[in-house]
Specification:
The chain has about 475 residues and is an alpha/beta fold. It is about 45% helix and about 10% strand. It has a 9-stranded mixed β-sheet with strand order 1-9-8-7-6-4-5-3-2, with helices on both faces. Helix 3 crosses helix 15 and helix 14 runs antiparallel to helix 17.
């Protein structure tokens, strides 16, 4: 009986074992090949993601330049090789706008030099204390003229930022004096003396710095430079009054958004991770504002109270911070009014000096629709040159062969190259030269690149039409 049970139990086992052995024999050789295929597919997927994220398949190209053909524009093309040469970012990561932007945000620049200058304090009519840092040229300018770069940094920035230090050092070595505005509330260890901070388009402190430079150096010519938010302030300042353009050779802005209203609305979108950038920038602004909490709450005539600070704590976007805090510094009744009145969009068409507007196509902070504004300006106004690079991110523009970026960026070199060309243009036109004060507007009139009032009105209409066409982003 036991033997019979054993046979009964073993009889079905033997065929199964034989089948399993047969299966292993049949499929065994294919399994390693299958695993190799999975590994190969995984590697291919990773490589594809890397190539897409780093944009490695993108080719390098010269920047796109939009402008009217004038004597000045032809001269600039001959005098500025960077406008016609390929901009070549570091091969392994430089074609990613996100990495360029992150690298700029994290370290600013490579091997930023130590600057030696003087901090100036200016008391504003409302009791605020504006500060700017002055750095003398380290040699004579190539034209022999006295030229000052008046620089407005990006949001919450000051002269101690690495990208500002690198740029200023480069300008000094090319014979430029540099004055760098420290945004109100931005420099460490400088307390507020009035219940307000810098805003998106308040030009009071920048105007005070420029006025001081004009008075202290009566013979100097000015090159206006603005980075990101600083570009908005610089263009708005020049367009607010014709007298603001006296002795101004040119204006250069890099990576500005032109329309505050549209820019902030696009910051709520997830494409290109703008919503994430919005959150990071809002967190930085929140910390900066809270570092001045005692001043904003304690000073008389303050529009900021506990209710506003409670909203600030809960804010996760720049728009929420602007609505609860920033717009109230100047008494704007609504967020829309704040953005419209503080944006350079309604002033930039009144600027008659040469405008050099630089943006990057892969800037994750600036929506493509915003680039229609400078493009329309350059197509309608002969004093405007719009330069759009294929790579560069937001204030990155790093250059390099493979992995390590160079200390100087394409942006640094392009600004100085353009400014040098304008200085030589001015030097070679005796009719434009004046004793003591210089009127850049009359210089441009003699070059045939002025903008008539009628054309300015047409440009204004066109800009508003561009804004209307892109209302889907508002």
């Amino acid at each position: 009986m036991y033997f019979h049970q054993s046979q009964t139990r073993s009889s079905p086992v033997a065929p199964m074992s034989a089948l399993e052995d047969g299966d292993m024999g049949t499929f065994g050789p294919e399994l390693p090949a299958m695993f190799d295929g999975v590994k190969l597919a995984a590697v291919a997927t990773v490589l594809y993601v890397i190539v897409r994220c780093l944009n490695l398949n993108s080719t390098t190209a010269p920047p796109e330049v939009v402008q009217q053909v004038t004597a000045l524009s032809r001269y600039l093309f001959k005098s500025c090789p960077l406008l016609t040469k390929e901009y070549i970012p570091p091969l392994l990561w430089g074609k990613s706008g996100h990495i360029q932007t992150a690298l700029y945000g994290k370290m600013g620049r490579v091997n930023s030099p130590t600057l030696h200058g003087f901090r100036k304090f200016l008391t504003m009519p409302d009791g605020a204390t504006a500060t700017f840092d002055l750095f003398e040229a380290l040699g004579d300018h190539s034209t022999g003229d006295d030229v000052t770069m008046v620089i407005c940094p990006g949001i919450g920035n000051h002269s101690e930022q690495n990208y500002i230090r690198t740029f200023v050092d480069y300008c000094q070595r090319h014979g430029y004096r540099c004055a760098v505005l420290n945004h109100l509330g931005a420099p460490p260890n400088v307390e507020l003396t009035s219940p307000r901070m810098f805003t998106y388009g308040c030009t009071w402190e920048y105007a005070a710095m420029v006025g001081h430079i004009k008075q202290a150096f009566p013979q100097t010519l000015l090159v206006v430079v603005g980075f990101s938010l600083g570009g908005n302030i610089a263009c708005k300042f020049l367009g607010e009054s014709p007298s603001n353009q006296d002795r101004v050779l040119c204006c250069v802005t890099v990576c500005q958004g032109y329309s505050a209203l549209r820019a902030q609305e696009t910051f709520l979108q997830w494409d290109q991770c703008r919503r994430l950038y919005n959150f990071v920038l809002a967190d930085r602004m929140k910390k900066l504002i809270l570092s001045h909490r005692s001043s904003l709450l304690g000073l008389k005539s303050s529009n900021i109270g506990d209710v506003e600070l409670s909203k600030l704590y809960a804010a996760t976007s720049l728009m929420q911070i602007d609505d609860s805090i920033m717009r109230k510094f100047h008494g704007h009744s609504s967020l829309k009014e704040y953005y419209e009145k503080e944006s350079c969009l309604n002033y930039i068409h009144k600027v008659s000096v040469p405008l050099f507007l630089v943006n990057s196509s892969d800037d994750p902070l600036i929506h493509q629709s915003l680039l229609e504004i400078p493009r329309a300006l350059a197509e309608k106004m002969p004093n405007v040159m719009f330069v759009l690079t294929q790579h560069g991110g937001h204030l990155g523009f790093f250059e390099g062969a493979m992995l390590l970026p160079q200390p100087l960026t394409w942006m640094d070199k392009a600004i100085v190259e353009y400014a040098d060309a304008l200085c030589r243009w001015e030097k070679n036109r005796p009719a434009c030269r004046r004793s003591g004060r210089r009127d850049a507007g009359s210089c441009l009139q003699r070059t045939g690149v002025t903008v008539s009032e009628q054309k300015r009105a047409n440009v204004t209409s066109d800009l508003h039409a561009v804004r209307g066409e892109k209302s889907v982003f508002l």
